[in-house]
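2024-03-11 09:14:02 DEBUG pipeline.ingest accepted 1 chain
2024-03-11 09:14:02 DEBUG pipeline.ingest length=331
2024-03-11 09:14:03 DEBUG pipeline.predict start
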Amino acid sequence: MVRINVITGFLGAGKTTLIKHLLAQKPATERWGVLVNEFGEVGIDGALLASPAAGVAIKEVPGGCLCCANGLPFQIALNQFLGAKNLDRLLIEPTGLGHPLEILALLAQPSYQAVSQLAATLTLVDARKINDKRYSDHALFNQQLLVADRILAAKADTYLADEFAQLERYLTSLRPNSAFLLDSLEQGVGQQAWLQGQAQAWRFCANTGAASNAESSTNAPLLSLAPAYNPQGFVFKHRYADGFHAYGWAFAPELLFSLEALEHCLLGLRCERLKAVVITQAGVLGFNLADGVMTVTELDDCLDSRLELISLDAIDVAMLQATLLATLVAS
């Protein structure tokens, strides 16, 4: 019986970082899987999560919303995991713009209950966002909080004195008839114990009618692992849903970027979220930009360079594309 945890949270809450810490705590005798999705189509989190740890398998579903549970890519990846031998736990990370209620409802169906157990759902939330109407008025932001069995106050070490208490009051108002567990999360360091228990809160969410209409991704084109690059050596994709734009690029592996020039370019961008896995003259690097703070991590390898940003406002694609190309160096 595979135990399944859905780990959700809005843009930039730190889901991927938490999962990396949880994987590091995996019992040596267990085999875990991670099913992860991006809002756009270029696929980056799989590379950022990639770990040499034994007993961990990672699958990524790029293109469209993972929460569109009827989407063929999601069901294929899910069935592959559940059909694997000796899998003990599966962590599902929907995109920050995902509709987790649809995933939980699918996993509760008898056909999946026969081979899996729906364990505690975790939702990460940055308490500082509840005072931002772009978040607190967004249906998906609140749905993610409603389905949670355990809510994690992400980046708690950065809060001002009253912000944790403000979050607690907001949750009490949002869920007056549904108990919840609330914990602080600092530097993404979670506890394996948080994964224990059964998923219960999502049923309260379903009964409130809090589900939002998910955009079907069944017919959405996926950017394959071996895309057909244009003559300049890249592929560009754009997606708009739920009030957000996602812009993504994949660059041929022979293209080499200047680390200094690329950092300067990325730091100048105004967006809600940015992730990238890039082949530079300094090696393969992962870039993560949230709340104006960018982190850079060394990676072992990647198939090609990929960059995706999420923005409330439309951007000048031609200008940004030209700027990115200008950061290339002779290989």
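2024-03-11 09:14:41 DEBUG pipeline.report The radius of gyration is 19 Å.
2024-03-11 09:14:41 DEBUG pipeline.predict end
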